[in-house]
Design goal:
There is one protein chain. With 205 residues, this protein is mostly helical. It is 62% helix and 0% strand. The protein is built from five helices and no strands. It has helices at residues 2-16, 78-108, 115-155, 160-174, 180-204. It is flat.
Length: 205
Amino acid sequence: MPIWDSISGRKEAQTSNAFDPSTAQDATAFLSDVAIPDPSKLHPLAGLNQDTLDYLSLEDSALDDTPGSRSVLPSRGWSDDLCYGAGTTYLAALSLGGVWGMAEGLNKTPVTAPPKIRLNAVLNSVTRRGPFLGNSAGVVAMVYNGINSTIGAVRGKHDAANSITAGALSGMLFKSTRGVKPMMISGGIVASIAGTWAVARKAFF
């Protein structure tokens, strides 16, 4: 009897621990809506109000309210003007210098030269003239913005007189090591460009 009881007990234990296939989970349990997150919630801007984000819009109260400072581009002060002015001036001068270098390279090489030699001459001229003109114009634009912002802060307004004066001073400072005549020529050129920009800005913006 003890031997039979022990054997029957083991059989009952094995029967109670047997695997029931009807209780197994199928694939729908893993692919349910609860298991898979909503793809729209994974977006970086999910749950944010895009109308109130600071980097998408500038409040009118944060803009520069100095008379004559408003233009087509919103500006919060001299730092924004420095970024806009120096950046656009550098890119424009870099492009103009590239065109100048390409024309110079094509004119210096004979027409009968092999294509590789003409291409090499053009690339050398472009890389020499483009960065030179872009860097020079970028430096002048940075100095011009600093002087123009300072004059505007002192006078309490931005007008054509500020731009022309700042252009003349920045051009003269740029060529201050070359002598009086180059200083006057450079100052006149930059003042003319600044005056033209000020008149066009007032007329169209």
